Amino acid sequence: MAHRVITGKNVVVTGSNRGLGLQFVKQFLSKGNSVVATARNLEKAVELQRLAQEHAGRLTIASLDVSDPASIEKLPSQVPWDRVDVLINNAGVAGSFRSLEDTNSDVMMDTFRTNTVGPLLVCQALLSSGKLGAPQSAEGAGATIVANVTSKMGSIDDNGSGGSYAYRASKCALNIVTKSLSIDLKDLGIDTILLHPGWVMTDMTSGRGLIDDVTSVKGMISVLEDQPELNGKWFDYKHEAIPW
Ligand SMILES: NC(=O)c1ccc[n+]([C@@H]2O[C@H](COP(=O)([O-])OP(=O)(O)OC[C@H]3O[C@@H](n4cnc5c(N)ncnc54)[C@H](OP(=O)(O)O)[C@@H]3O)[C@@H](O)[C@H]2O)c1
Question: What is the pLDDT of residues 209-227, one digit of tens each?
Answer without folding.
Answer: 999 999 999 999 999 999 9
